[in-house]
Design brief:
Belongs to the ABC transporter superfamily. The protein is an alpha/beta fold. The protein contains 9 helices and 19 strands.
Length: about 400
């Protein structure tokens, strides 16, 4: 790729902030501390050697958890911050929309705010004249443009601010967490605009926590974690890495609550040391088998059965379970079971496994909470992210198709 084809180049960028550790109002004290090597501040490194390129015409996604450094990176690209190391090169006019409504004045009319905000973005009056009708039409606020902004509802202000950003005729558009703006009808309108922009050849950089949006709109993406590039390239791979990391955290956070709820439902300990181990890969395609091992200790002669379920984490519903209780284990001692099944009817879904050990009366004897069970991501890159036919065609639970293998 030549420099002429690059819209934005982030070249080994690092950024830190100095956080004061002590306050001094004396020049003498400050000089003494300096000679002693006491800086009076610590350095918080927010970005560490960030390096990637956005090609002309890319719909490029930047993802990462809160505090990962995304906002700082955007402000460097937008020339609000200056990096300590490295540089950012932008070819063409940049329109940056980092915060909704920044630069708007409530005492001015909607029309005046459009011209003022356009001027802040670097457009001349003639250029704003040419864009004005498109901005107003998209915001659907034609009859309100001569009213002061302070008389607008919050939704109207959001629509106007967002419309100025996306309808401004810049070469590179940066959007930060703006996919939830406006009401449902306006969101559908924005969706149509993004799909149109994706094929327009214009460059867009989208920062979001919505992995479905990354897969739907973006053709390239980068994952920032703790100020470093963790994944870079195909949006499916980047989004799945983010989802996998984030899902593990969510599952761990809920583990203690799940344990306490399960403990209240179980009988006096007749089963101990329940363990679940994923034997297949943690991220698989739907046409691959999910396989895991279950082991536990039975403390008396109670016959035991295993019941299990796979739950869609995002929707919090079961997509598969096996509680047939067809395969008991008898006698005390250590029990080991392997189970294999598939979810070939599903795609682009995060599931967690939950396992219980029960007696012949279906009373719960042990429960494997979210903290102890694997998280499995299904993904097929040959199916478009917005193609939900596989999931929608599944009425209720996937038909049980698993196989058990017991080892005493």
């Amino acid at each position: 790729m030549t420099d002429k084809n690059i819209a934005v180049k982030v070249d080994h960028v690092s950024k830190y902030f100095r956080l004061p550790t002590e306050s001094t109002h004396s020049l003498r004290t400050a000089m003494v501390n300096r000679f002693k090597g006491i800086k009076g501040y610590t350095e918080q490194h927010v970005l560490r050697d960030i390096n990637f390129e956005v090609a002309e015409g890319d719909f490029f996604g930047i993802v990462g958890r809160n505090g990962s450094g995304k906002s700082t990176l955007l402000k460097i690209i937008s020339q609000i911050y200056v990096p300590e190391k490295g540089k950012v090169t932008v070819n063409g006019k940049l329109v940056s929309f980092i915060e909704l409504g920044v630069g708007f004045n409530p005492e001015l009319t909607g029309r005046e705010n459009v011209y003022m905000n356009g001027a802040l973005l670097g457009f001349s009056t003639d250029e704003i004249d040419a864009m004005y009708d498109d901005i107003v039409d998209f915001a659907e606020l034609k009859e309100f443009m001569n009213q002061k902004l302070k008389n607008y509802s919050s939704g109207m202000q959001v629509r106007l601010a967002f419309s100025v950003a996306i309808k401004a005729q810049g070469d590179v558009l940066i959007l930060d967490e703006v996919l939830a703006v406006g009401d449902e009808a306006f969101q559908r309108k924005c969706n149509d605009y993004f799909l149109e922009r994706k094929t327009s050849g214009k460059t867009t950089i989208l920062v979001t926590h919505d992995m479905a949006a990354v897969k739907k709109y973006c053709n390239r993406a980068v994952l920032i974690e703790d100020g470093l590039v963790k994944a870079y390239g195909e949006p499916f791979d980047v989004a799945n890495q983010y989802s996998f990391d984030n899902t593990e955290q969510v599952v761990d956070d809920k583990a203690e609550q799940d344990d306490s709820q399960a403990a209240a439902e179980t009988k006096a300990a007749q089963v101990d040391n329940l363990q679940v181990k994923l034997l297949s890969k943690s991220r698989i395609r739907p046409d691959e088998k999910i396989k895991f091992a279950i082991s536990y200790d039975v403390l008396d002669d109670t016959p035991t059965y295993i019941a299990l379920s796979l739950t869609d984490i995002d929707r919090n519903i079961w997509v598969y379970n096996d509680n047939s209780m067809d395969y008991p284990t008898a006698g005390k001692g250590h029990k080991t079971v392997t189970y294999e099944c598939d979810l070939s009817a599903l795609n682009d879904i995060k599931v967690k496994l939950e396992v219980t050990v029960r007696d012949e009366n279906e009373q719960m004897l042990a429960f494997s909470s979210a903290a102890h069970t694997p998280v499995i991501l299904l993904n097929r890159t040959d199916i478009q992210a917005d193609d939900k036919s596989a999931l929608d065609s599944a009425s209720g639970l996937i038909q049980r198709n698993g196989s058990w293998e017991f080892t005493e």
